[in-house]
From TrEMBL:
Its job: Catalyzes the last two steps in the biosynthesis of 5-methylaminomethyl-2-thiouridine (mnm(5)s(2)U) at the wobble position (U34) in tRNA. Catalyzes the FAD-dependent demodification of cmnm(5)s(2)U34 to nm(5)s(2)U34, followed by the transfer of a methyl group from S-adenosyl-L-methionine to nm(5)s(2)U34, to form mnm(5)s(2)U34.
Catalysis: reaction(s): 5-aminomethyl-2-thiouridine(34) in tRNA + S-adenosyl-L-methionine = 5-methylaminomethyl-2-thiouridine(34) in tRNA + S-adenosyl-L-homocysteine + H(+)
The species this protein was found in: Paraburkholderia pallida
Region (tRNA (mnm(5)s(2)U34)-methyltransferase): 1-248
Segments forming domain MnmC-like methyltransferase: 128-245
Gene name as annotated: mnmC
Keyword flag Methyltransferase: yes
Gene3D superfamilies listed in its UniProt record: D-Amino Acid Oxidase, subunit A, domain 2, FAD/NAD(P)-binding domain, Vaccinia Virus protein VP39
Name of the protein in question: tRNA 5-methylaminomethyl-2-thiouridine biosynthesis bifunctional protein MnmC
GO molecular function: flavin adenine dinucleotide binding; oxidoreductase activity, acting on the CH-NH group of donors; tRNA (5-methylaminomethyl-2-thiouridylate)(34)-methyltransferase activity
Keyword set includes Oxidoreductase: yes
Region spans: FAD-dependent cmnm(5)s(2)U34 oxidoreductase: 272-681
Domain spans labelled FAD dependent oxidoreductase: 269-649
Record-linked Pfam families: DAO (PF01266), Methyltransf_30 (PF05430)
Length: 681
């Protein structure tokens, strides 16, 4: 179970140096925070020279603190004459600052930053601006991985909030440079323990370098035991010595090699499906400079489940902080950041080329049922989530938020709400097409029938047998049709019929925020209320049904008493008009988690089934260049952007945006793995 995240306490010593009462240690040398960062970590890893002309360069840090090392590295990247195309900075922090405390801490150190450091990297002016951007982007203090993007995505900060002993072994990346930072080994021995260095050895790339201000004997021994070579050099400030070195193991120290980019002659991907999954993939790949061909069988994007008038988005709270809760939390927070970026792109676009996604901003209420109220209340008390993420509300406060009478209280997500999925899909595709040097080809009205391998590419054919396109990568984002088109036997997806009801001149016209529980109600423009939705497994009939409208109204009326009269009239057949609504088919898996990532090679697995009977996900044979993003069920809004970022990261060999164990929970090959372990092939 995830541990409660305890924020750092900001304090200052008499000389103005930021100080941690918890660890009884300072955050940086009294000789200067940015001077120390440049001397120890940038020069210690021979940066910025080592990232010259690299496409991707990844820095891994063991303690984020105030973010001084990140800011110094970012500034050096900005000022480098020959820099890497994309800089990734990954850092673990057990006790992150609140946004206000981070601002205060950085204000203090930036005020003492030299206006000209004398080296290629930081200046007081640039650092102040970058610090302001970091504070503005600072995430909510909830456990897990947070992905922040700067410089249009060319600088990416991945923050892992939690105990480094737990988080570092779960991260999946290839580190080119390692910053060994944190409070002194005598003050915080866990951060310098052998387990930390073992985790670093798992992800260090070939010839990865490291540096640290510490030269303690235990640190040197742990480095040697895990394949790192070190040498002493002159330390910074009052430190006589510090350590620098590289990863150069003389023996095998890991089972799996850290990720590399997919080997391709051209970075060209064909995405099948223009719903939430496909449009997010187009935007994430185009942002990395990929050539993308988007194929959709309908005449426009978002014509199936993604075409509902509105969908709700919110995290998931559970008492044990399950994998589904952690994945949904990461997806929710990442989606909010991507949507904010789309808002900004829409404001900057000329002649309305990009429309901002249409969404609500007043929050979302989740009303408790009798069997979940105690469990959720216990979870909220246990994890101590910040109120900007979620807070419990009694009925009176919930009614004040909602603007209508409610049956009970529950909990409130201030950043939750409702969004028009079709507007989101259009915005993502438009943003991809509007990028400088964009290479996006959108083809509507094309039904994909089959794929074939041809040399190092995949050929995609339509129903008539005509070749539509060929690319080194094909990503199936076409929901129910994905398993058939990809010829997957181990993809147990099912269709779930969902019928929505639209109430014009609604009794709930004063409803201010979406309300969910055993059903949901969403306020729409024009005093319309969206009520839903039915959940009918293996039912693919898309015709509207009177019984479905009655069911929707009755369930919502149990939460919002103002709808009881309308529900009773509907049940009695006494409604004065024909109900309006929409039917969509959700695609779900047997474990209710999405399919995100590289597909398994089922034929190869069958041939080698005996050897693979105890296989882990990284042992499985994979279908070269084939990926999936489907089976989102009713959570496409919170999973699509994160899923697209995960697949793009896998293709590029970048740090993954979530922990590896969570990525394995949504791995499309997980059902193949289970079949191998059960010896059922």
């Amino acid at each position: 179970m995830t541990a409660t995240l305890i924020p750092a306490t900001l304090a200052f010593r008499e000389d103005g140096t930021p100080y941690s009462p918890r660890f009884d240690d300072v955050y940086h040398s009294t000789f200067g925070a940015f001077e120390q960062a440049e001397y120890v970590f940038l020069r210690g890893n021979n940066l910025p020279e080592r990232w010259q002309n690299r496409r991707i360069f990844t820095v891994l840090e063991t303690g984020f603190g105030m973010g001084v090392n990140f800011l110094a590295t970012w500034a050096a990247w900005r000022n480098a004459s020959a820099r890497c195309e994309r800089l990734h900075f990954v850092s673990v922090e057990m006790h992150p600052f609140s946004r206000d405390d981070l601002r205060a801490a950085l204000d203090a150190v930036v005020a003492h930053a030299p206006h000209s450091s004398g080296t290629e990297g930081t200046s007081g002016t640039s650092i102040a601006r970058l610090a302001h951007e970091l504070v503005d982007a600072w995430p909510m203090l909830v456990p897990g991985t947070h992905r922040l993007e700067f410089e249009g995505g060319r600088v990416t900060l991945t923050l892992a909030f939690g105990d480094a002993l737990e988080m570092l072994p779960k991260m999946w990346l290839r580190a080119d440079a390692i910053y060994l930072d944190g409070f002194a080994p005598a003050k915080n021995p866990e951060l310098w323990s052998p387990a930390i260095f073992k985790a670093l050895a798992r992800v260090a790339g070939e010839e990865a370098t490291f540096s640290t201000w510490s030269s303690a004997g235990d640190v040197k021994r742990a480095l040697e035991q895990n394949g790192f070579e070190y040498r002493k050099t002159t330390g910074f400030g009052t430190k006589w010595t510090m350590l620098v070195g590289r990863f150069a193991p003389r023996w095998r120290v890991r089972r799996y090699e850290p990720p590399l980019p997919l080997a391709l002659t051209e970075r060209h991907a064909l995405v099948i499906g223009a719903g939430l999954a496909g449009s997010a993939l187009v935007e994430r790949l185009a942002a990395r400079g990929w050539r993308v061909t988007l194929v959709e069988r309908h005449a426009a994007p978002a014509r199936e489940a993604s075409g509902n008038p509105a969908g709700v988005f919110h995290p998931l709270v559970s008492r044990d902080d399950s994998s589904a809760s952690r994945i949904t939390r990461a997806g929710f927070l990442y989606a909010l950041r991507r949507w904010a970026a789309l808002d900004g792109a829409a404001q900057r676009s000329a002649h309305g080329a990009i429309e901002a996604p249409v969404r609500s901003h007043a929050g979302l209420l989740h009303l408790a049922t009798d069997d979940e109220s105690q469990a959720v209340a216990a979870a909220l008390a246990s994890f101590g989530y910040p109120e900007e993420f979620v807070r419990g509300v009694d009925r009176a406060e919930a009614e004040s938020i909602a603007g209508v009478a409610l049956a009970q209280g529950g909990w409130f997500y201030p950043r939750g709400g409702a969004i028009d999925p079709a507007s989101l899909c259009r915005a993502q595709i438009a943003a991809a097409c509007a990028l400088p040097d964009a290479q996006v080809d959108v083809r509507y009205g094309v039904q994909i029938e089959r794929i074939e391998r041809a040399g190092d590419t995949w050929q995609v054919f339509d129903e008539s047998g005509t070749l539509v396109a060929q690319a080194g990568v094909v990503i199936f984002a076409n929901a129910h049709d994905a398993a058939r088109a990809a010829a997957l036997d181990f993809a147990p997806t099912r269709s779930v019929r969902g019928q929505l009801t639209l109430l014009d001149e609604s009794p709930l016209a004063s409803l201010r925020v979406p309300v969910i529980g055993d059903g949901y109600a969403v306020p729409l423009p024009g005093d319309v209320t969206l009520a839903g939705a039915t959940y009918e497994v293996d039912d693919t009939d898309i015709a509207l049904r009177e019984a479905g409208h009655v069911e929707n109204l009755e369930r919502v009326a149990q939460m919002l008493p103002g709808l009881q009269v309308a529900a009773a009239n509907a049940a009695a057949g006494a409604h004065p008009r024909v109900w309006q609504g929409r039917v969509a088919l959700r695609c779900v898996t047997s474990d209710r988690l999405p399919m995100l990532g590289q597909l398994g090679d089922e034929a190869a697995a069958r041939r080698d089934a005996q050897r693979l009977s105890g296989a882990w996900p990284l042992d499985l044979p994979r279908a070269q260049g084939l990926y999936g993003a489907f089976a989102f069920g009713s959570r496409g809004l919170v999973w699509a952007a994160l899923g697209a970022e995960l697949i793009a990261s896998q293709l590029e060999g970048e740090p993954w945006p979530i922990e590896r164990e969570l990525a394995e929970q949504v791995d499309p090959a997980r059902f193949l793995q289970r079949a191998l372990r059960q010896r059922s092939l």
